[in-house]
Design goal:
The complex is a heterodimer. Chain A is 34% helix and 27% strand. By secondary structure, chain A is an alpha/beta fold. In chain A, strands 1-11-10-4-9-8-7 form a seven-stranded mixed beta sheet, with helices on both faces. The chains are: A alpha/beta, B mainly alpha.
Chain lengths: 270, 273
């Protein structure tokens, strides 16, 4: 149960302790138009099988960075490598979970979950089988033929998560997935997510503005400073994953890490 | 392996199937009552009378029945429907096509937007002499009148619907490696369907106005002939009966379009109705 947080200086991951990176971000800079400088020479490694959180105040470019990694936005300069290959657009090894769920309102839960497979031409019976499996996995059995407007916010995001899992990508990119979900649902969802990831063995890049959420779910936290977005520091909250959620939330090291990040971030709010 | 859903996350307070069925029949009763109320008001207004040119509802219905029996109405409609159907069909097919093109492609938009904005803003009755100048007084001129009224509404609604299709859904489609064609057919067009269909309904209603205008202003044929003839011989009940059939017919077509929309494009609406 003993846990401690170690803050690292902004530098490429230490090869002695980190597993091989599956995603490498090299010198990414992003301008919007002439004068909005969103990201400034970001260098980051995302170790395989780990959950990395991009944390920072609004305007620090964390969602921009995530969308550049996803291949949905082009950087002004710099490159992203996935498994050693440079990113030129979205690819099968990455799946995105959207902040606003981005479900097709005219499609049932099954079709929504199978949509990624539908786009890549998987036959209907096969993709719906797979969709049903992941619908059960995220706890939505019995809701297969419902439409998104019949579900609560938390359930809609479970559909979004199932859709991302169904394409069997190595990396899940999650853009503030719980921000549109109420607090109780959010906690349950975080616990379920950790459990699911321990089963599915994915690499996850997770964007959030919630410090508690970042410390609770992450192996590695990257704190970004705003305007332009730069890496402020990296933190590895070394919290035992065998502890129960309630134990973790009362753990001193957990609370200390939250406090430490807050001290770092609060100066950007003035 | 699976994770149970918490009870707090149950169905978001939707009425059960039984509740929605009673609500549905209540809506139906209200609709019937509103129609009966309208006809009753018409009857009373005719009895007052507001004007000698304003027949009672019952007189109008008798005239209608008479025109159905002697086949006049049927002949008139077979005349009126030709330019109407051709015009509406052309407006719908090309209108939706051009509108989708404008929404997807800026260059197409620059070419077509001014034309249709001008057409929509122009008073068509004033253009009709020009139409007869170019297309004569036959069925072509009447078809053109229908198109001029219907097409701008359909084009501009379709264009706006496509342009405003959720960028988040488009991005979602791209992130799962959807092609541009998949983006258009599986996301943009279904997302735009409600507004496209709203435009089609308005466009079809405008097409009815166009055909009647043409039949009144170019050469009296079909329903326009019935209206103008009975007006000239002061048989107002027959005139209103003809107008009445147009309204009913137009409403039926618009209603059928709505059914087609929910059936083929918006299954979630059908379920929640």
């Amino acid at each position: 149960m003993m846990a401690q947080a170690t803050a690292l200086k902004a530098a490429p991951g230490d090869p002695a302790t980190d597993p091989a990176p599956i995603i490498e971000v090299r010198n990414i800079t992003k301008f919007y138009g002439e004068d909005v400088h969103a990201l400034d020479s970001i260098n980051l490694d995302f170790p395989v099988g780990q959950m990395t959180t991009l944390l920072g105040p609004s305007g620090c470019g964390k969602t921009t960075l995530l969308k550049i990694i996803a291949g949905l936005l082009e950087p002004s300069s710099g490159e992203v490598f996935v498994k050693g290959k440079p990113v030129t657009g979205p690819g099968p090894e990455r799946a995105f979970v959207f902040q606003d769920f981005a479900l097709l309102p005219w499609a049932t839960v099954v079709r929504n979950v199978a949509f990624g497979l539908e786009l890549t031409g998987v036959p209907k019976a096969q993709r719906e089988d797979k969709a049903r499996h992941y619908i059960a996995e995220v706890g939505l059995s019995g809701f297969e033929n419902k439409f998104p407007h019949e579900l609560s916010g938390g359930m809609r995001q479970r559909v979004g998560l199932a859709r991302a899992l169904a394409v069997n990508a190595d990396v899940l990119l999650m853009d503030e997935p719980f921000s549109a979900v109420d607090e109780q649902t959010r906690r349950k969802f975080q616990e379920d997510l950790l459990y699911l990831l321990s089963v599915e063995k994915k690499t996850v890049i997770f964007v959030t503005h919630s410090i508690e959420e970042a410390v609770y779910v992450s192996d590695q936290i990257v704190i970004l400073s705003p305007r332009p977005g730069r890496i402020h520091s990296k933190i590895r909250p070394e919290i035992s994953r065998t502890a129960t959620p309630d134990e973790i939330r009362r753990d001193k090291a957990y609370l200390d890490t939250v406090e430490e990040i807050w001290t770092n971030l609060r100066k950007y709010l003035d | 392996m699976s994770i149970s859903t918490t009870p707090a996350e149950g169905l978001a307070g939707l009425p059960g199937p039984k509740g929605s069925r009673t609500a549905l029949s209540r809506v139906f009763i209200l609709r019937v009552l509103s129609v009966i109320g309208l006809f009753a008001a018409w009857e009373i207004a005719g009895m007052v009378p507001i004007s000698v040119a304003f027949p009672k509802f019952s007189e109008t219905m008798i005239a209608l029945w008479e025109m159905i029996l002697d086949g006049r109405l049927f002949d008139a409609y077979s005349e009126t429907l030709k330019p109407l159907a051709v015009g509406v069909l052309i407006s719908a097919v090309f209108g939706v096509g051009i509108g989708v093109g404008m929404g997807l492609n800026a260059r197409t938009q620059w070419v077509f937007e001014p034309i249709f904005v001008v057409l929509q803003a122009s008073p068509v009755a004033a253009l009709i002499p020009l139409i007869t100048y170019v297309y004569g007084i036959g069925i072509t001129a009447k078809t053109v009148a229908v198109i001029i009224l219907a097409a701008p509404i359909i084009v501009l609604n379709t264009y706006k619907a496509v342009r405003n299709a959720s960028p988040n859904l488009v991005q979602m489609c791209r992130s799962f490696q959807g092609t541009r064609a998949q983006e258009i057919w599986k996301v943009i067009i279904p997302a735009a369907a409600p507004v496209i269909f709203a435009g089609l309904r308005l466009g079809v209603a405008a097409g009815f106005i166009g055909v009647i205008l043409a039949e009144l202003l170019i050469t009296p044929t079909g329903i326009g002939d019935i209206i103008s003839y009975h007006q000239s011989v002061a048989e107002y009940a027959h005139m209103y009966a003809a107008v009445f059939t147009i309204i009913v017919f137009s409403a039926l077509v618009v209603g059928a379009l709505e059914q087609a929309e929910t059936r083929y494009f918006r299954p979630e609406k059908r379920k929640s109705q």
